[in-house]
Amino acid sequence: MKKITSCLFLCLLTTATLTAQRTRTPFVTTLFKETPVLFNPGDYPDGVVQKGDLLYLGNGRIVLKKVTAPHFENYTTAEITLTLVSHGDPWDKSGSCFVIPASSAVNMIDVAAGRAHYPPHDTTRYEQLNGIVAGEGYLPTVELMRFMTPFGVGHFSSNDDSVSARRRPVYVDGWAKQVTWEQDISDRLPLLEGEAYVGVYIDTWTKEGYQVNAALTFTESALPGDKKPLLHVEPLINTNYYIGQKHPDIFSRQDVEIPFIIPAHAKDVRLKYITSGHGGHSGGDEFHPQENILTIDGNEVLRFTPWRTDCASFRRFNPTSGVWLQKRTQAFIGHSGKREVKEIEEPLASSDLSRSNWCPGSDVPPVEVNLPEITPGSHTLTISIPESTPIDENKLNHWLVSAWLVWEE
Prior knowledge:
By secondary structure, the protein is mainly β. It contains 4 helices and 20 strands. It has one domain (26-408): Jelly Rolls, CATH 2.60.120. The protein has helices at residues 2-22, 108-113, 123-126, 189-192; strands at residues 27-37, 49-51, 54-57, 62-69, 76-86, 94-100, 142-148, 179-184, 194-202, 210-220, 231-238, 256-262, 267-278, 292-296, 299-304, 323-333, 339-349, 367-370, 377-384, 398-408.
C-alpha cells in the first residue's frame, strides 16, 4: 500500500510539474479601469471624443482603446474578464465588448468622425441596416463578449438604499456590489495580436451610466514545439446598433443571407453564433421563445430556441428590478411543527422572468457549430428567426445576432 501511495504521489507531482512547465507567466492587458460608459451629449458631443488614451463615440455610449498584444509563437489561450457596476443607471441594458478587425479599412471610428461611410449594401437583402455585413473595405465588428447589465448593481446595492432596501427578498442576504463575467476567446486571438481597437458598448440613455473594468489574459505554452495553430477569423454579421445603425427587426420580415468564401487550404472550419432577443414588452421578442435556424447553402446546421429559464438565480445582482406581488397557495411548516397550507402574496421581480437567451446580469456565450463537410468555394449562411415580430411604436422588438467563422490555415 505504501508503494502504491508513493507511486501515486510521484505521478501527481510529475503531472503538476509538467503543467507548470507547459505555461509561461500569463500576459495581461488592461483594457479599461473604472471607465465610465454613459449617455451625455454635453460632455461627449457627436463625433469622436478623446480622453487620455480612450476614444468615446455615440455621446459616451461607446468607449474604445488601442491595445497591443504580442504575436505569440506557441499555443496560446486568450480570456476576457469584464466587471461592471451601475453608476446610477437603474435599468437592464444590452452590452457588447468587441474588437475592430485591423484589416478593415473603414470602421466605426471613421464613421463617427465623418471621415467615411459604411459601404453601400444590398438594401433588398439587408434593408437599411448598413454596416452589419462586410462591404468594400469594411468588415463588421467581432464581439468578444455579449453581456446584459443587471438592474442597478453596485450603485443601489446598499442594504439601506432608499430605492432597493424594501425590494430585497428574504432569500438574498445582501445585494451584490458588482457583476463579473469571464469567457474564453482563444478563437479570436488573431484579431488581438499586434495592435487592435477594443471597445465596450452599453445601450444606456442616462448620464450616470455604468463603470467597467476589463482585461485580456493571454497564456502561452512554454513547451518547445508546442506551436500555435495558424487561425483565420472571418467576420460574417453583427446587428448590434453601435454607430449609425437601427434596431434590427429585419428577421420579422425576412431571412438574412450572408455570402462567404472558404479557401482551399482551410481546415477545421467552425461557425460561432451569438444571439439574444429584445423588446416588445410581455409578448415580444424578449419574452417569447423563438427558434433560430441557421443553414448553409440550404442545409440546416443549427436549430435551437435560445431561452434562459434561470433568471431568478441572478436576483442578488438586481436591486432596482421592478417587483410585483402574486397570490398563490403555499405549503409550509407551522409553529406546531405540522404541515399547513395558506394563501400568500409572493414577490416576483422583472429580473426573475425567463428571456430570449439572457438574464439581467448574465453574459451570452457563443454557440459553436463544427463544419467538417464544408468544401472550398462560395457559400451562403442564412439566419432565420421566423416568429420574430416587427417594431411597433415603442415595442422595440429586435434580435442582436453576430457570427463569424474560424478555420485553421
